[in-house]
Amino acid sequence: MCGPRDCTGAERDAAREVGRLLAERGAVVLCGGYTGVMAAVTEGARSAGGLVVGVLSRADREGAAPGLSAAIATGMGEARNAVLVASADAVIVIGGSWGTLSELALAVRRGDVPVVQLGGWQVLDERGEQLPGVTRAADAEEAVRLAVA
Amino acid sequence: MCGPRDCTGAERDAAREVGRLLAERGAVVLCGGYTGVMAAVTEGARSAGGLVVGVLSRADREGAAPGLSAAIATGMGEARNAVLVASADAVIVIGGSWGTLSELALAVRRGDVPVVQLGGWQVLDERGEQLPGVTRAADAEEAVRLAVA
Amino acid sequence: MCGPRDCTGAERDAAREVGRLLAERGAVVLCGGYTGVMAAVTEGARSAGGLVVGVLSRADREGAAPGLSAAIATGMGEARNAVLVASADAVIVIGGSWGTLSELALAVRRGDVPVVQLGGWQVLDERGEQLPGVTRAADAEEAVRLAVA
Amino acid sequence: MCGPRDCTGAERDAAREVGRLLAERGAVVLCGGYTGVMAAVTEGARSAGGLVVGVLSRADREGAAPGLSAAIATGMGEARNAVLVASADAVIVIGGSWGTLSELALAVRRGDVPVVQLGGWQVLDERGEQLPGVTRAADAEEAVRLAVA
């Protein structure tokens, strides 16, 4: 699950719901492990008894979301975005930021996992047209259904 | 310098020109080190006697562009995109691909280096509006001028 | 918990016991996630209901130990040794291999976590003398006591 | 070329000589890019007109050795040791430190490049015996000859 630190209340609610639904399906949730969308998905998954692993950019746990089942302090800075995306069976993106966009791009680049976007930024090619590779979901439930399918 | 393996002839020409101009200004050129835009920028920089370091995704040099002054075989897969971007004083992006987009996003995310785009994909926010952080150049010369400024 | 793929029966037993004892104390166990000592510590920790995260070198889960609670497929090759070591609150090393030695060295290099060794290789300085930084344990119980202290 | 920040005058001299000899043979020198042995090898290689790439642990160039032809600011902390070692055609280790030992171990772990040690620490197996994989050189000249062979 990818998403920005700075997010709207609606994005936070969607992330919490996505976390809860993933945990109910028995999925292990991976996220960046800090605030905003990351903390919300952690909260949601934990409320349903799920397992959440935070893949942190820092080499220590400063600022990590409370409630993470485990934290991997990669110490790799933003290169951890690639590690996070490489480790997932599906990627759900909520909201927009440049860090989040890098995760979306790296996920589509993989080519072998579903990439589902809930709100957030848009990417167009040089002619202003939509690019294949990302599926848009209308809400948390649809996002999880598309990701876990 | 970031850009895709698969590129148009015009993108290749622009990359060659960017490489040449950077070398003429005495800049060390960093790139992903493979084919397409990466090979073209290498060719251009070398033609002007410049230094080009390829930051490779693989742990060996298979497929590396001929002419690289040095190759760093990171063995990190796409996480090398973050290493490449972290090591630059300015980032010029030519053409579009998901890997290239991840580099563009990571570069803007840094917030402390010029990010210049020549052609390629567009990123819009949730309302369909342009986002700050990337400067568009009309041609190779303007791209280099904006990057090195 | 660090250790080689190729290990003796005694090392395997010690690793299983270390895993069990860590889980009983409520510790999350991090390991490299493959066979040998890594699989044994996973088995031990899981037998006591513990949580085990495998920090894999590969970008997929091929060859990962069965029973891992979660796997982080870093795709970074041996650079994952540094990630594993950076993420731990204490490092227990069982048995010897060059990969394991790199983890031992990186752990002492950190300077802020206990590094406990059970059997395995020895490192001497240029005069053939022991170096400070690693504590030797006689058995699994002592290793865990020293690590968790 | 791997070696510690804190080194003796003799190690510094040996590193300078190794750098010079590598440059004379046309080899590109890779090193960790900071002070001590790293700065000395850089100095030696540059004095002979050679190319030196520093693979830095930090995400910026603070503290980088003067004279580097190019710096790769990996921002990966000690995981850059693995990147450095993965990128070399041969590894020469001068002097001892835990970081240096991790590079020695990762280099032998690769199994496909010569690993040559000049002074520094010793690694023994559980029975106190020498391990294969590292060749000891008597001086800088022998080290370079064994590495480049």
Automatic annotation (TrEMBL), chains A, B, C, D:
SUPFAM superfamilies: MCP/YpsA-like (SSF102405)
Protein name: TIGR00725 family protein
Pfam family, one: LDcluster4
Domain of life: Bacteria
Spans through the membrane: none
